[in-house]
Design goal:
Structural class: alpha+beta
Helix content: 40-55%
Region (Disordered): 277-324
Mean pLDDT: 81
Number of strands: 9
Number of domains: 3
Pfam families: Phage_integrase (PF00589)
Keywords: DNA recombination, DNA-binding
Domain Tyr recombinase: 53-258
InterPro entries: DNA_brk_join_enz, Integrase-like_cat_sf, Integrase_catalytic, Tyrosine_recombinase_XerCD
CATH superfamily of the largest domain: Intergrase catalytic core
């Protein structure tokens, strides 16, 4: 299969073969436990390595530029638009009908998938069935697409007025994305549209699924909670969303490094401030004290504590009119931190 011995004639990826290996391993392990076979033959087979390339993600500025380039009145561009702004999969985009869009409440319902065999079926998992809120600009784009589709049907019906076939009418079950024959677009056809248009959009070499990656990565950069991202993406676990579909760019890494630098600088500045103002602190008032750890490089040998001075602290258990005082000794390595 790695050499192209498949039905399509294309070599299978390492990730696909890895999944097959895991499935066969589970099946044979069950047969061994039932004593149907003596040993698991998969134990003697090397596990195929996952060779899936890391997906890229567009920056928010580049995503905005792509949205401005799209003509949402067309079938192909409204599909790209839904992938970059709603994070829909290719099969979910092709399965979308006007019945699934509630323009009054601005909600898009995802509950079907259109597979390679032209089967319109329910989503594979319960998590894949979800209701997505529509932003205002996405709702406007879909309305423009719906109006353009109505005009297309009128023109198509006029051209086919003398024929028995070819009459089309927009209904609630009409797909949002149509092919040349005014039928529901096949997922492979939609993928070929992207391969044709991506160079014109300035995204040569980018795959269609990376638009979904970009959508989820932008949500992560904006601080959206992982659980909310999971619901929007239709994943069964938030771990899948955070580990696979989010990307950290160099700017975010630099921000994390700056946070650590600021933290260490603030610690050093605090100790320097307290050492400088300890002698000038006002007297006659109680203070909190804390131990200042000397630098590891300049730490002096430990010495026995020596009484250097006395100061008075009011005893809170005595009467307020005639307070008594208690003598407290301080060591050289104690510093005054702040007044109560």
């Amino acid at each position: 299969m790695r050499q192209g011995d498949t039905l399509s004639g294309k070599p299978s990826s390492g990730a696909y073969l890895n999944q097959i290996n895991k499935t066969l391993d589970l099946m044979f392990r069950d047969l061994v436990e039932r004593e149907v076979i003596m040993c698991n033959p998969i134990d003697k087979v090397a596990t195929p390595k996952v060779d899936t390339k890391e997906k890229r993600a567009l920056t928010p500025a580049r995503m905005r530029q792509l949205v401005d380039q799209l003509e949402v009145e067309t079938s192909c561009d409204i599909g790209y638009f839904l992938a970059i702004t709603m994070g829909l999969r290719r099969g979910e985009i092709c399965a979308l009908s006007w019945r699934d869009i509630d323009f009054d409440n601005k909600v898009l319902t995802v509950n079907h998938n259109f597979d390679a065999f032209r089967n319109l079926k329910e989503a594979k998992t319960h998590a894949g069935m979800r209701n997505l809120p529509l932003p205002e600009f996405v709702c406007d784009a879909l309305l423009r697409r719906k109006k353009a589709q109505q005009e297309y049907f009128l023109t198509r019906n006029y051209l086919h007025r003398g024929l028995k076939k070819g009459w089309s009418e927009q209904t609630e079950d009409t797909p949002v994305v149509l092919d040349f024959y005014a039928q529901r677009a096949h997922p492979d056809t939609f993928g070929k549209w992207w391969e044709r248009d991506r160079k014109l959009l300035g995204l040569d070499g980018w795959c269609l699924h990376e638009l979904r990656h970009s959508y989820l990565s932008m949500l992560a950069q904006q601080g959206v909670h992982p659980k909310v991202m999971q619901e929007l993406a239709g994943h069964a676990s938030a771990t899948i969303t955070m580990d696979i579909y989010t990307h950290v760019n160099m700017d975010q890494k630099r921000e994390a490094a700056d946070v650590m630098e600021d933290a260490f600088q603030s610690i050093g500045a605090e100790e320097e401030f307290m050492a400088k103002h300890a002698e000038d602190a006002p007297k006659g008032r109680p203070y909190k004290v804390r131990h200042v750890r000397p630098s590891r490089r300049t730490r002096a040998p430990e010495q026995a504590p020596v009484q250097t001075e006395e100061r008075f602290v009011p005893d809170s258990y005595q009467q307020p009119d005639r307070p008594k005082f208690q003598v407290i000794t301080t060591a050289p390595d104690l510093r005054v931190s702040e007044a109560i």
